[in-house]
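re: the backbone from monday

yeah here it is again, tokenized this time
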């Protein structure tokens, strides 16, 4: 499995768990194995009464380049596994901290946003690229983005697909703190995890569920219609053009078809 899961003792008992993406040769692009592993890792952490905090990290120079575009999507549910994995991270009853180095693009950015707290090095950068690929992002991901940075800023990031450096990401609220390098990032993550581990786990778990209720919900009928249109987009001419342009390193020319 392309994940590294390690535990260390907490300052007041219990365990502090780190889940690290471990596919550095692919810039930690998320394939089906990674997504399955992440979902299982966060579900396991939530069910393990000894775990107090979960840190999400990555090996190599990138946090995650996003969904592995060499993987095919299933018709009718183009990114169901991505949606399930992000939901598992958000549902985890333990406090979660993302440690971002390098690129956090697309699904990689959503990984970070699915965590409760986000720390990053000064060299980190962020992007939500679907508009440049001719596809649309899942409603859950866009709702989470809007809840974190506000509706107007979320639209800017989603509609333009522009790359955001760490300093701007901090101003936007995408991340909570910028650290000079990987060493100081790890040190702060340990300090934050230790502080969180000293609180009452059941109280934190309940409040996390309450905060989850505050995020916008989608009407079932609207959601069904949106999913039909999103599925069609994945198999549109524009999506084919976006992926071809990416593979050949040229700007896409979209026709709205």
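seq for it, each position gets an aa:
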């Amino acid at each position: 499995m392309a994940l590294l899961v390690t535990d260390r003792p907490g300052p007041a008992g219990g365990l502090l768990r780190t889940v690290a993406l471990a596919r550095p040769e692919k810039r930690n692009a998320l394939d089906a194995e990674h997504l399955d592993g992440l979902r299982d890792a966060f579900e396991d952490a939530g069910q393990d009464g000894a775990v107090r905090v979960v840190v999400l990290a990555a090996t190599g120079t990138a946090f995650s380049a996003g969904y592995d575009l060499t993987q095919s999507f299933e018709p009718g549910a183009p990114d169901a596994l991505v949606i399930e994995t992000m939901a598992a991270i958000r549902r985890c009853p333990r406090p979660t901290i993302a440690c971002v180095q390098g690129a956090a693009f697309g699904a990689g950015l959503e990984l970070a946003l699915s965590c409760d707290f986000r720390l990053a090095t000064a060299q980190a950068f962020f992007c939500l690229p679907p508009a440049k690929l001719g596809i649309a992002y899942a409603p859950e991901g866009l709702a989470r983005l809007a809840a974190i940075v506000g509706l107007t800023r979320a639209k800017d990031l989603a509609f333009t697909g522009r790359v955001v450096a760490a300093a701007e990401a901090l101003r936007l609220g995408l991340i909570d703190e910028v650290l000079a390098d990987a060493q100081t990032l790890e040190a702060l993550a340990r300090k934050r995890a230790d502080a969180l581990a000293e609180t009452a786990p059941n109280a934190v778990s309940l409040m996390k569920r309450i905060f989850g209720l505050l995020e916008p919900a989608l009407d079932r009928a609207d959601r069904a219609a949106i999913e039909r249109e999103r599925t069609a987009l994945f198999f549109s001419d524009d999506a084919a053009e976006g992926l071809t342009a990416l593979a050949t390193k040229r700007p896409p020319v979209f026709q709205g078809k």
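The CA atoms of residues 39 and 252 lie 33 Å apart. The mean pLDDT is 89.
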